């Protein structure tokens, strides 16, 4: 533990902001380190210490990297990079087929660890989540101490490492978790937030993509301090509704809650293929598998929906969706599969490689939702 973190540890998040008499929240963002690749290295000793990429292929129809180990990242290999480019950067790269069932099992164990400290948990994906520990179950009181214990439990019980960011809001906690990877623990306290945001490069703002970042830089906006010089109206004029968010966050203001309980909006499943698909028959076979998962989840959660949506992601990362709505609620596998296949057939797939397919059912009938299901954790993707 470095000297600064030790100082902050001995002076954990204050209970009250006396300037406006509002309590600070204690937010942790936990992000697993190279999650898929780390699970593969743990389960296969022959991969330990070697450059591996989960997803993609060095031969055949290519594909893209889902996750790269830190050994591979040292060569510049990154997620979403084509297999061809990844192998050019790292000729000794080992490509590993994804095992999503294994990753989900590990993810469920991680979430159980979170639940030992709080019920206010908002998973963002299999490998990251927000936790609100303002009122923790064990009465520990220090968000930094809780983050440290969570990291230790993950290491001891799963032989994996996680990085954690601690602050008083979600935005800053998420940025903090990425600052000292891997196996990092970073605290950004109230007195440091605004100055920290001023120094942050605009491309580091979550929600600022490559296009927006370039647009900002073209106008001389390179850091949070540059954004801070603009009025809220000016930011909205330049960047639309996102301007409201930029205005607040550069001042360290983020009032979003950790949404541990959300109304179910949709139920779905999707699969990313180790090799891109070209043949419609192969795609329909994959839809058959996915529709079974979706139908089982709908039945398990006693839901009925009116809209079926098919998601198609191509090898160039372009994603399209096609939807069909019914006059009555549906739930059976046969009708979901038939609708999905019809939607896929209607899409323009000519000479296009497909790397992901997904099916979602939505537009649920509120009248048939059991009472206990209202407020259940949002999307039911794996």
Automatic annotation (TrEMBL):
Co-factor remark: Binds 2 magnesium ions per subunit.
Name of a matching Pfam family: IMS_C
Q: Which GO terms describe its cellular component?
A: cytosol
Question: Where's the active site on this chain?
Answer: 128
Using the record's annotation, list all stretches that form the UmuC domain.
27-209
Which reaction does this enzyme catalyse, per its entry? DNA(n) + a 2'-deoxyribonucleoside 5'-triphosphate = DNA(n+1) + diphosphate
Q: Which residues are recorded as binding Mg(2+)?
A: 31, 127
Which PROSITE patterns does the entry mention? UMUC
An example molecular function term from Gene Ontology annotations: damaged DNA binding
Q: Which residues does the UniProt site feature Substrate discrimination point to?
A: 36
Q: Which InterPro entries match?
A: DNA/RNA_pol_sf, DNA_pol_Y-fam_lit_finger_sf, DNA_pol_Y-fam_little_finger, DNA_polymerase-Y, DNApol_IV, PolY_HhH_motif, Rev_trsase/Diguanyl_cyclase, UmuC
For the keyword Cell membrane, the answer is no
Instruction: Tell me which stretches of the chain form a coiled coil.
Output: none
Cofactor dependence = Mg(2+)
Alphabetical list of CDD domains matching this protein: PolY_Pol_IV_kappa
Instruction: Write the Enzyme Commission number(s) for this entry.
Output: 2.7.7.7
Instruction: For this entry, list what GO says about its biological process.
Output: DNA repair; DNA-templated DNA replication; error-prone translesion synthesis; SOS response
Task: Kindly list the places in or outside the cell where this protein is found, as annotated in its UniProt entry.
Answer: Cytoplasm
The family line of this record is:
Belongs to the DNA polymerase type-Y family.
Role according to the record: Poorly processive, error-prone DNA polymerase involved in untargeted mutagenesis. Copies undamaged DNA at stalled replication forks, which arise in vivo from mismatched or misaligned primer ends. These misaligned primers can be extended by PolIV. Exhibits no 3'-5' exonuclease (proofreading) activity. May be involved in translesional synthesis, in conjunction with the beta clamp from PolIII.
Q: Which HAMAP family match?
A: DNApol_IV
Q: What name does this protein carry?
A: DNA polymerase IV
The species this protein was found in: Pedobacter nutrimenti
